[in-house]
Amino acid sequence: MSRFVRPLDRYVFTEWSKIFLSTALGLPFLLVIIDLTDHLQAYLDRNIPRADIALSYVYWMPQSMFMAMPAAVLFATVFSIGNFTRHSEVTAAKASGISFYRLIMPILFGAVLAAGLDLVIGEMVPITDARRNDLLGESKIGSGTLRSNFAYAAEYGRVYKAQMLDVTRNSMEHVQIERKGSGADYPTVLVSSTGAKFDPRTGTWTLQQGDMHIIRDSTPNTDISFGELVDRRMTERPEDLMAKPRDPQELRFNDLTQFIKSLERSGGDANLLRVERALKIAIPVTCLVIAMFGAPLATSTQRGGTAYGIGVSLATTVTFLMLIQLTKAIGGKHLLPPDIAGWVPNVLFALMGLVLLIRVRT
User: Fold this and answer.
1) Which of 162, 218, 207, 213 is nearest to 188 (CA)?
2) String of b and e for 118-150 (b: at least 16 CB within 10 Å)?
């Protein structure tokens, strides 16, 4: 390890880590203060205990840290390399035969660690946000449990149509199920019933008082009447059949993927959710991209001081956030494939970072 990790590497990584940790914790704390100032009176008017309000902001920290992590990497990169440049430590390293690319390797390594940490935090956000909503009573506000006159495209080529869905009662009224066939061995099936009941224990739906029509191409059709019929192919829960827009922050990556499929089957527009899903990976990767961009940028002036570092970091952060909002709009309108639109800010900053790295004096 001593051949690959030099004392200079430990020094660079330590100086970078100090700024990174203070910024990664300081920015979310600042956001908490701002949000608390805006909403404290509303929480008190709803008679929420002060202890629950305080605990809710503890659960809010992962969400604020998820977006702040790339900014923390940028601040740490710009300020650490800026300090090395002003104190002629970069010049001394070059005079010792250490290139600028080799000098920033510990910083890039730290950015990779930050990206991995941000991925973990991103998966924690839905859990902590759900707990926060429970403490603040927000999960009870505007939660719909009814859906009427809808169609839902499910697995196995099946389409469900229902007059009414009630999630609280785990039931549907006037249900029709259609499965288009492809030949004599796989006929078209039409099922109609007065209602259906979902059993949470077994995860199955039971259709009540209806008829099944089996339609074949070359042989006579078959009609079957039933009092009750258990449909084992209908595995969707009542919540899945709601398929209404939900906040992507409420869902982990895999859950969001399943919800997108459910929404698309029911005929909903999932483009914006696809962009949000891409951002769940793209934002953590930004930690590495932004380090590649900020490292050569910090050496562009030696006398800018703290004001220069703050200005560069804030301008870059604001630009990145604006690009995220722009890509959401572009992906949501399908001007670009939604799964690609979320990566546009990273691609742009990566290209600029590569240009700056090539032009920097090594």
Assistant:
1) 213
2) bbebbebbbebbebbbebbeeeeeeeeeebeeb
The CA distance from 277 to 24, in Å, is 23
- The DSSP code sequence of 81-144 is HHHHHHTTHHHHHHHTT--HHHHTHHHHHHHHHHHHHHHHHHHHHHHHHHHHHHHHTGGGSS--
Q: How many CB atoms lie within 10 A of CB 66?
A: 23
pLDDT tens per residue, range 245-283: 556 677 788 888 877 876 776 566 778 888 888 989 999
Judge contact between 292 and 354, C-beta under 8 A: yes
Q: 311 — phi, psi (to 5°)?
A: -60, -45
Best CA proximity match to 320, nearest among 303, 344, 296: 344
Task: Record the pTM.
Answer: 0.70
Bridge partners (DSSP) of residue 177 are: 160, 191
